[in-house]
Design brief:
It contains 1 helix and 19 strands. The protein is mostly beta strands and 289 residues long. The two termini are 18 Å apart.
């Protein structure tokens, strides 16, 4: 990889303007800075699910994120606080290189029949709790997995790649272009893996922030190639939300979910067994040339 000299970069700038139409809910995290110089810094991160990127207006992300330091060891989340519309926390940067900050959600969904009636497994059920939510006497039990990642990257000093070592589970980013080295006018190449292998034909949704203040989403709908790679162009500087799924994103509109959510919403309404759901979300910052 080729890197530039790190510079201080603000995470987001919100301008005053008339709000655009309400959009579908999307989860995201943004850091107060994505690249910093020096050897001892702090970043503050906002984490939320919202209608408009990146404006907190719906609900916070309550899970405490995990931090992976540049040397691969766990870091610490400090001052974690959950409010009505967003969660915030701090990360102390004491190592040189790239940090990963993120959450992993791994749950089980599906349905079963009891007394001739089809019932859904409660949302948020984890594999270790599955036996406790399905009552005795249940029949025609159908289950599948939901596995999602929501992560961001912050670099102190020169960018490094240790935190991108694949774990072999769900969708993961293996960058060809480092996500803290993005510039307007220079296409970035990202590779995505599914369960540790290059994943072709993944749907990649790219939306610049600030949609609250414009009529058009300016959304890019892309797909990974046979090698799991996708090329993304950045028309303007700022924050970009990237969502990756194996299934085609649903269209926005009344009663629909967020773009890139993919997959059916109710296993009971499917013709066959529920299909596994996997997704990946990140926010990156693109700088002016």
């Amino acid at each position: 990889m080729k890197f530039r000299t790190p510079i201080l970069a603000a995470a987001a700038i919100l301008a005053l303007a008339a709000p655009a139409a309400v959009q579908a809910h999307r989860m995201w995290m943004i850091a107060s800075s994505t690249t910093v110089s020096g050897t001892d810094n702090w970043v503050t991160v906002d984490a939320a699910v919202s209608n408009d990127l990146f404006f907190f207006d719906h609900q916070p992300i309550r899970a405490v994120p995990a931090v992976t330091q540049p040397d691969g060891t766990p870091g610490t989340v400090e001052n974690h606080a959950v409010g009505k519309f967003r969660a915030t926390f701090d990360v102390h940067l004491t190592q040189q290189g790239t940090y990963r900050i993120g959450t992993v959600s791994q749950t089980v969904f599906g349905s079963y029949k009891l007394g001739g009636e089809t019932r859904m497994i409660p949302r948020g059920t984890t594999a270790d709790k599955l036996a406790t939510v399905i009552p005795a006497g249940a029949a025609d039990i159908q289950t599948s997995e939901s596995f999602s990642r929501n992560e961001i990257y912050v670099t102190q000093g020169a960018p490094t790649t240790t935190v991108f070592k694949p774990m072999g589970k769900g969708i993961e980013l293996v960058p060809v272009t480092h996500p803290n080295d993005l510039v307007v006018g220079e296409a970035a190449t990202f590779q995505f893996l599914l369960d540790g292998k290059p994943a072709p034909d993944l749907f990649v949704t790219v939306i610049p922030g600030g949609i609250r203040y414009r009529d058009s989403l300016k959304q890019q709908d892309l797909k990974t190639g046979a090698d799991g790679k996708v090329s993304i162009n950045w028309p303007d500087p700022g924050l970009y939300w990237i969502n990756v799924t194996p299934t085609r994103p649903r269209e926005e509109g009344p009663g629909t979910g967020a773009p890139g959510a993919g997959g059916p919403q109710r296993p009971g309404g499917m013709a066959g067994p529920p299909q596994r759901r996997v997704s990946y979300v990140t926010t990156v910052e693109v700088l002016a040339p």
